[in-house]
Design a protein that fits this description.
The complex is a heterodimer of chains A (109) and B (113). Chain A is 0% helix and 56% strand. Chain A is mainly β. Chain A has no helices and eleven strands. The radius of gyration of chain A is 13 Å and the shape is globular. In chain B, the strands form two sheets. In chain B, strands 2, 4, 5, 6, 9, 10 and 11 form a seven-stranded mixed sheet that branches. The termini of chain B are far apart. The chains are: A mainly beta (109), B mainly beta (113). Chains A and B meet through strand 9 and strand 10 of A and strand 5, strand 9 and strand 10 of B.
């Protein structure tokens, strides 16, 4: 049972444009959400997080939005850069911790 | 800062052979340790986590096992590998107050033939 889902396995975006990665979850008890970035043959690295008491958190080019009523969060990257090309995992935490299935982002120069 | 060493980076094993993947952590003490697997088309699935030496919790039934013989050492093992054990295995750690993996190793790509 996949409690955290990323329905788009891949996304291609032109350099300089906005990348929007989406994530849906099923458990309303999740209270903390994270995004990780993963390059091939490397482990994921933490990117940005948001608590359920907030609806937006921004860090440089990265912004995470949380819509609790829709059980949906998204990661916005603007402007997108070729170095952002990677697999992005969302994750949700409550009593347990769950990763999504990942979205492979390709930023085209 | 915390550093996770994981080896080997890639491994090709025949079905039915044993497995031992090792993970060591530097830069912290009493970490929570995790083994994850990323199978093709799937997210990161938690296999085992450990809050201390000799303390292992298993999240999914399988033919894998884990051991933590030392505070900063976590080992993933199998007596007999199955084809379905193929995947990308990641060791992770967090400080003792968090159930969220904070740092990951670079992973082991395991292929079963």
């Amino acid at each position: 049972d996949q409690q955290v889902k990323q329905n788009s396995p891949s996304l291609s975006v032109q350099e300089g444009r906005i990348s929007i990665l989406n994530c849906d979850y099923t458990n309303s008890m999740f209270d903390y959400f994270l995004w990780y970035k993963k390059y091939p043959a490397e482990g994921p690295t933490f990117l940005i997080s948001i608590s359920s008491i907030k609806d937006k958190n921004e860090d440089g080019r990265f912004t995470v939005f949380l819509n609790k009523s829709a059980k949906h969060l998204s990661l916005h990257i603007v402007p997108s850069q070729p170095g952002d090309s990677a697999v992005y995992f969302c994750a949700a935490s409550g009593n347990q911790f769950y990763f999504g299935t990942g979205t492979s982002l390709t930023v085209i120069p | 800062s915390q550093t996770i060493h994981q080896w080997p980076a890639t491994l090709v094993q025949p079905v039915g052979s044993p497995l031992s993947l090792e993970c060591t952590v530097e830069g912290t003490s009493n970490p929570n340790l995790y083994w994850y697997r990323q199978a093709a088309g799937r997210g990161l699935q938690l296999l085992f986590y450990s809050v201390g030496i000799g303390q292992i919790s298993s999240e999914v039934p399988q033919n894998l096992s884990a051991s933590r013989p030392q505070d900063r050492q976590f080992i993933l093992s199998s007596k007999k590998l199955l084809l379905s054990d193929s995947g990308f295995y990641l060791c992770a750690c967090s400080d003792g107050y968090s159930n969220q993996p904070q740092h990951f190793g670079d992973g082991t790509r395991l292929s079963i033939l």
